[in-house]
């Protein structure tokens, strides 16, 4: 593997970055020396050339994980917990370097990258503690000569596929509960952002994880790797974060084996501001919920509904705040919004803006690319939005905020729920009766009430409808990696 020297010089511990190619799963370069390149989306700078792995390498990684599974599951919960704790401590100690790698390959501002690495470490800490809290149960037997109980055991080898928008925290959120439960891992990071995953995995040897417990696959195309993970009988569970379209495909591929699957898929989050809301607080929350990571999050506010009584006040204050957001290279001081991940993301925003303008929408600020080349885009606010516009029906995944006026709660809840997605929703209100009624009526797995940010390792993350299956984080996230076994003991 070759690495870009300017990036290495930027890091305090260049050995961490150079250790990426020594991350677990030392399968070597694929036959023919296939490689793929990783670029900095801010500058176009070549960051690395990585081995481009395929079916053979994935199968070898699965075999390694399968061979290590029994021994890893046989460890005590305390032993697994201690290794997760050590990994957590190493991640914390290398936060600056991991954040620099993340910003270089993904583009988000360095402060956001550091926050993400801290969030990743928090998941490792949480599940290091939860590893010791996997409990069974006893059941009252129908006769005196029986004893009935339930135990929980690790499901086995887990295949995981993580996205490019949160390449550090998604790695930790997926594999830390699996490791805590006693499962071994094969992970494929997104081809756009594989480097921070490699650096994190490079630290697992120092944390004491045995050979074969954690395995990493680099690949420029996910189809072949995904098929092998789904069809290989040694893999007992798939965990995927990404688009709903790919999630459907993985479900079909897992169906023949009735393979357990967890899916965290697309969203189309409504952000509702009622007349009785604190407008200034709602503006703050909307900035957080819409423009974090340049709007490239599955829980990003995609439709901003504002009740007529506060509509004009909210729009004026929101537009003023959005106009203050600085756009640029994530390493530059004071930058709030980095680049979009690629030119396709820019094209989608432009399509949504053009469609909205053609149907009566108005640009209140932004609306254009920054520079002739690259993927920087002005943070944009549109008003006069109606339900037939693409932006009201499709996830944009960028710094584009459409505002829709509404009149009453029944109307807005109906509009908010009128989507195949059900991941996250937000609303601002003061009336306690309204808060309860709206929170219960919204068909979403997560609802932020008077807040624009709600992710936590202690809370269950996941959606309803076509936004996914299962939950990540919290004690509930551990259950997806455990099998429940009923034991009935006779002749007692």
Outline of this structure?
This is NAD-dependent succinate-semialdehyde dehydrogenase. This protein is of the alpha/beta class and 492 residues long.
Can you tell me the CATH topology of the largest domain?
Answer: Aldehyde Dehydrogenase, Chain A, domain 1
Strand order of the largest sheet: 13-14-15-12-11-17-18
The biggest sheet, with number of strands, parallel, antiparallel or mixed sense and barrel status, is: 7 strands, mixed
Report the C-alpha radius of gyration, rounded.
23 Å
Secondary structure: number of strands: 21
Determine the number of helices (DSSP H or I, runs of at least 4 residues).
18
Taking the alpha carbons of the first and last residues, their distance comes to: 62 Å
What's the overall geometry?
globular
Features:
single chain, 492 residues, alpha/beta, Aldehyde Dehydrogenase, Chain A, domain 1, Aldehyde Dehydrogenase, Chain A, domain 2, 7-stranded mixed beta sheet, 6-stranded mixed beta sheet, 18 helices, 41% helix
Q: How do the strands and helices of this protein lay out in sequence?
A:
Elements: E1 2-3, H1 5-10, H2 14-18, E2 35-39, E3 46-51, H3 55-74, H4 77-93, H5 95-106, H6 110-130, E4 137-139, E5 147-154, E6 157-161, H7 169-181, E7 185-188, H8 195-202, H9 204-207, E8 214-216, H10 222-231, E9 235-241, H11 244-255, E10 260-264, E11 269-273, H12 279-291, E12 301-307, H13 308-323, H14 343-358, E13 362-365, E14 380-383, H15 390-393, E15 400-406, H16 409-417, E16 421-422, E17 424-428, H17 432-441, E18 446-449, E19 464-465, E20 468-469, H18 476-479, E21 482-489
Parallel strand pairs: 6-7, 6-9, 7-8, 9-10, 11-12, 11-17, 12-15, 14-15, 17-18
Antiparallel strand pairs: 1-3, 2-3, 4-5, 5-21, 10-20, 13-14, 16-19
Helix pairs in contact: 3-10, 4-6, 4-7, 5-6, 5-8, 6-7, 12-13
